[in-house]
Design goal:
heterodimer; A: alpha/beta; 4-stranded antiparallel beta sheet; 23% strand; B: mainly alpha; ABC transporter involved in vitamin B12 uptake, BtuC; two-stranded antiparallel ribbon; globular
Chain lengths: 294, 346
């Protein structure tokens, strides 16, 4: 069940452009690894390599010490690596259950009579969505008729269901409001508790810091920094990412998030940051930076 | 209480109010079924001979071969592609078979197998060209259409000095395949009708009850998304192109055995009839939505109108006016149906 994904000196080029340059990181079960970076920093390229959309030009990816080379998303799924794509990879005209199982349909019977186990598939979708607190009354409902948050949850439920060991989320909170983002962050914590290795791609340190254990910062296709949570304050992370957003605004936003979702982890995180901010204020003028500066 | 769960509770109430009628309305073939009943009622009223065994046999006869093709083209359209070469492939496989067996004296089954292999090859060619070049299938298969048409007419004239290959009826072993492809097992009704019904049932089963069917909807709805979740997109599309070509071969055999001859002009212009029948049946031109039963009903409407106009004593030229009107109505209904299907309920 546990998994360790090692990304070793991976590079990817598109013509003259280097999209990812000598990237290395280790991702482990029961941890949330946040990959942060601005648009064009190479986050999408990294995801596409890990989820099997294309292989890297240089370097290698190892799963549990064994070298793997994914030629299609099917290969990654076989290794238990599920991905929630930024565009969700949902087909609006298809029903909820057909979308959920697209590419990995449950069948019964023998060839040539092998057919879809539709009743089981529909029940499974209802159950899996129920686990996320969303009640699907009619699994025949078309995905195009779902709300943005429901669609996002369906994509996550699908990736968790098929990505039994590792879960990659590409900007899952980017298009969502504060409340819905809170729900997604809660799923990330839940997935981590279930022992999954979670890779959370985002450009928003406010979303990454409360849930992350391990932070990799990308800048212009290269690794700018690689930190454990203990080595890094949100303040520092913000500085590295955006450089100076108002911290008290952030704490307010997080507290609001915590009360709305009722998630103890988020409340604790918000509290921690508040303490940290207050600590910073007390140490006014003192240099808080640690030695791991990039 | 999150926003989602509140929205879902409201959705449940609306769900409960959804009537059986609305559910039927959301089926892709619903519009064509209503259309078929209307056309049937209209011509039964206009022409006394329409609702007789003979009249129905005359309706079902052209509907059957058109339907076999419309179902294949419909599935390809759901998969997001077109095949404009489907029409001329009916004539090309037929003349190829007739030349091989009646002219070159090959065994009748061997000639059938060779022309079938040719159909598979053309299907693969169409599929590979579309997938490799990423050109629209509309353009690629338009090219194939004229290549096949030109080669077929050129070669046939070169070999036989005419554009019709006759004498298939005199080939040894003609009787048994004739029974399979062209006989009248029950009164006026042709065996092609049985083929049509069986193929429609099979295609419906594949589309709605197998993994491959799910892939067809997926690759037509959004090929990139389908690939992302592990659907073999290229394989799915290739198989659909091959299925259309093989269907053209089947209809080519049906025509050749019925007439005991093959003409190079068979099927020219029919590629649009296949597409129109599929659209009348609820298949979207943009892919990802439609049904095999709908395409079969679309073909039935075609047959009813064609025969109905004749039996009503009108000039058959009016057929095309009907055709255009039906196509426009069907396209409009499809657009409304799709909007309903995509409409956000929350």
């Amino acid at each position: 069940m546990t998994v360790e994904i090692e990304v070793d000196s991976v590079s990817k080029h598109f013509g003259q452009v280097t999209a990812l340059d000598d990237f290395s990181a280790v991702v482990k079960s029961g941890e949330v690894t946040c990959v942060l970076g601005d648009n064009g920093a190479g986050k999408s390229t990294l995801i596409k390599i890990l989820s099997g959309v294309f292989p890297p030009d240089e370097g290698e990816v190892r799963v549990d010490g064994k070298k793997v080379r994914f030629m299609s998303p099917r290969d990654a799924l076989k290794q238990g690596i599920g991905t929630v794509y930024q565009d969700l990879a949902m087909i609006p005209l298809m029903s909820v259950w057909r979308n959920f199982f697209l590419g990995t349909e449950p069948t019964r019977g023998v060839v040539p009579f092998r057919n879809l186990n539709t009743s089981w598939a529909k029940q499974t979708v209802v159950d899996e969505m129920g686990k996320m607190g969303i009640h699907i009354r009619d699994p025949e409902q078309r995905v195009g008729t779902l709300s943005g948050g429901e669609r996002q949850s369906l994509a996550i439920a699908r990736a968790v269901y098929f990505g039994a060991r590792a879960l990659i989320l590409d900007e899952p909170t980017a298009a969502l409001g504060v409340k819905q983002a809170g729900v997604v962050l809660r799923y990330i914590v839940m997935a981590k508790r279930r022992g999954l290795a979670v890779i959370f791609i985002t450009h928003n340190p406010n979303h990454a810091y409360p849930v992350g254990d391990h932070f990799v910062i990308l800048k212009r296709a290269q690794v700018e920094g690689d930190f454990r949570k203990e080595e890094l304050s949100l303040d520092r992370l913000m500085q590295m990412m955006a450089g100076g957003e108002d911290l008290s605004n952030l704490v307010e936003e997080l507290e609001q998030l915590a009360t709305e979702t009722g998630e103890a982890d988020l409340a604790a995180a918000a509290h921690g940051i508040k303490d940290e901010v207050e600590g910073l204020r007390r140490l006014e003028g003192t240099d808080h930076r640690d030695e791991t500066s990039a | 209480m999150t926003e989602e769960s509140a929205a879902t509770v409201a959705g449940d109430e609306r769900e409960a109010r959804r009537s059986v009628f609305k559910r039927a309305l959301s089926r892709p073939e619903f519009g064509s079924l209503v259309g078929a009943i209307a056309v049937l009622a209209f011509f039964s009223w206009r022409a006394d001979t329409f609702l007789t065994a003979r009249g129905l046999a005359n309706v079902l006869d052209p509907s059957a071969t058109l339907g076999i093709m419309a179902v294949a083209v419909g599935l390809l359209m759901i998969g997001g592609e077109f095949d404009l070469s489907a029409g001329v492939m009916v004539g090309a496989t037929a003349t190829m078979f007739a030349l091989l067996t009646a002219d070159a004296g090959l065994n009748i089954w061997l000639a059938m197998a060779i022309s079938l292999a040719f159909a598979v090859l053309i299907g693969l060619f169409n599929g590979f060209m579309v997938l490799k070049t990423r050109l629209p299938s509309f353009i690629v298969t338009l090219g194939t259409l004229f290549m096949i048409l030109g080669a077929n007419v050129g070669l046939t004239r070169l070999i036989t000095d005419t554009v019709i290959v006759s004498g298939v009826g005199n080939v040894p072993g003609f009787d048994f395949p004739f029974k399979i492809f062209a006989a009248n097992p029950v009164g006026q009704f042709r065996i092609t009708v049985v083929w049509w019904i069986v193929i429609t049932a099979l295609a419906t089963w594949v589309l709605l009850r197998t993994s491959f069917g799910n892939w067809i909807f997926g690759v037509g709805g959004d090929a990139q998304a389908a690939r992302s979740v592990g659907v073999p997109v290229a394989f799915t599309k290739l198989m659909l192109f091959v299925y259309v070509s093989v269907s053209a071969w089947l209809v080519g055999m049906m025509n050749t055995f019925r007439l005991a001859s093959a003409s190079v002009s068979t099927g020219i212009g029919q590629e649009f009839e296949f597409i129109i029948a599929a659209v009348i049946g609820g298949c979207l031109l943009t892919g990802g939505y439609g049904s095999a039963i709908g395409a079969a009903i679309g073909a039935l409407i075609f047959g009813m109108v064609r025969q109905g106009i004749v039996l009503s004593g009108w000039d058959s030229d009016w057929f095309f006016l009907f055709l255009g009107v039906m196509l426009l109505i069907a396209a409009l209904i499809n657009q409304i149906v799709r909007k309903k299907a995509e409409e956000a309920r929350s």
